[in-house]
Amino acid sequence: MIKQIFGKIPRKPSKSSHNNSNGEGGINDGFSLNSSSGTNSNTLLKPNSVSSKSSSSGSVGSRSGNETSAQQFTNQTKKSAPPTGSVMASAVYEALPSFRDVPSSEKQNLFIRKLNMCCVVFDFNDPAKHLKEKDVKRQTLLELVDYVSSVNSKFNELAMQEMTKMVATNLFRALPSSNHDGKLAEICEPEEEEPVMEPAWPHLQIVYEFLFRFVASPETDAKLAKRYIDHSFVLRLLDLFDSEDQRERDYLKTILHRIYGKFMVHRPFIRKAINNIFYRFIFETEKHSGIAELLEILGSIINGFALPLKEEHKLFLVRALIPLHKPKCVALYHQQLSYCITQFVEKDVKLADTVIKGLLKYWPITNSTKEVMFLGELEEVLEATQAAEFQRCVIPLFRRIGRCLNSLHFQVAERALFLWNNDHIRNLILQNCKVILPIIFPALERNIRGHWNPAVQSLTMNVKKIFSEADQALFDECLMRFQEEEIKNKENQEKRESIWRQLEDVAAANAVSNEAVLVSRFVSSVAIATSANQLATAGG
């Protein structure tokens, strides 16, 4: 009993404890007991002290007369110390010495110990629990960030292993899935939702900052670090993009971009992994919090694509980016998506008609807000489109624009008419005036005659004036054709009304009887009689 009591009294470190290391740039920490030097000696590292340890040459530090009691305390600590990721009692979890308080030769060893100390994860769901330990860990994490930022020698393999272990222990976790249970997303209205905040952010933020400094550090050798920042590590980082905390996604975006830039060997894998996230989002869940951030990264990546574009990149455009217009919540990431699409067209103008036809394929019919967004993106794409590509898609494109011109939602009609304010697009239209004007002329005339919004009527008059000044003969021809079509439509309407009146008369005459009226036979006889009357009139 006395030995156990003595064993719990902290001892001053021996002089030799500052000079013995394992020869790999790190020493064992106070929260796990093992032998890393090849000798069979156990060591005890207490908080606020640097322990003695056997060196790689087999030399053993001096032992005091309290060796027995120390060993007993070691065994007790080993039994009671929780595994990595759990919460440690305050009697054990105490601050280690500052880097300023140890000689340079021991700083890297202390660095490893602090990393292991920060592998303990605390529960932030109870804000009143483990306050002292949480603050100790936070201060230790800040020290680690400063150390990584100021180090002036290459990180060795042991340091990289411990750094990635600490990062993985703190960051990689199961995200709450309560808001991701539905098969399809409802129309997204993010402004009505309260932002979700990660309760452990006081620690997570510093760990993210640590990872960013580590990846960006010139002392990080990519050839060595790729063993630890590997495919598995990248995949688990990508999983975190589904976090609902915007602050976390911003850090992830910056870090993944740095990883993509530094680890060239991982670039194809990262692109493929992002593709898979998009495929699942588009065709299965339509639920993901980080699509905008992933597209922002891809916008930078696409901007750096070498010319001519690889077939792999073109397939990515067709199979992933264009179908991203399909989900209902496209408004959440449309700005970033539009930038990526435009980058492709600017890189290779031959892709313009592919993009435009893709937009038409996913064009919204009943969602006016989404339609306005599509028209804005269409303008950006057309601004980068050349005449040859424009001609390949002009007919389906202006059939759709004609429908937009007649939209009762004034913002849709107005946004479509704004296309003529763009000089490049207006020139493309006038070069293909003979094809375009016959398609959209009826829409222009109907707007002028009957659209409820004065601004739309005014803009339509301006567009009509542009066409009449460009080719008056074609304009008059289209006007005549429209008037003839109007007369035909009026005659057809009168015929339909006449048939319905006759049907009503027959129904009224037979209302008192139980005789069934065969409508199809009657309609046929009326049609035959009408045709006979027309022939007789023509013959006379």
How would you sum up this structure, described in words?
- Residues 66-79 have a biased composition (Polar residues).
- Belongs to the phosphatase 2A regulatory subunit B56 family.
- The B regulatory subunit might modulate substrate selectivity and catalytic activity, and also might direct the localization of the catalytic enzyme to a particular subcellular compartment.
- The protein has 22 helices and no strands.
- It is mainly alpha-helical and 540 residues long.
- Residues 1-85, 180-187 and 535-540 have low confidence and may be disordered.
- Helix 3 packs parallel to helix 5 and helix 9 runs parallel beside helix 11 (291-303).
- It starts with a helix and ends with a helix.
**Gap from first CA to last CA:** 131 Å
Into which percentage range does the β-strand content fall? under 5%
Count of helical stretches: 22
Largest sheet: none
The unreliable regions are 1-85, 180-187, 535-540
What share of the residues lie within helices? Answer: 55-70%
Oligomer: single chain
Class of secondary structure makeup: mainly alpha
Outline type:
elongated
The number of distinct β-strands equals 0
Mean pLDDT: 80
Order of helices and strands: HHHHHHHHHHHHHHHHHHHHHH
Radius of gyration over all CA atoms, rounded: 37 Å
Task: Give a brief description.
61% of the residues lie in helices and 0% in strands. The protein is mainly alpha-helical and 540 residues long. It is elongated and about 105 Å long.
List the helices and strands and how they pair.
Layout lengths: L1 H6 L59 H14 L23 H14 L13 H20 L6 H15 L29 H16 L5 H4 L5 H9 L6 H17 L4 H19 L5 H13 L7 H11 L12 H14 L4 H10 L6 H16 L3 H19 L4 H8 L5 H9 L1 H18 L3 H17 L1 H38 L9 H21 L1
Helix pairs in contact: 3-4, 3-5, 4-6, 5-6, 6-9, 8-10, 9-11, 10-12, 11-13, 13-15, 14-15, 14-16, 15-17, 16-19, 17-20, 19-20, 19-21, 20-21
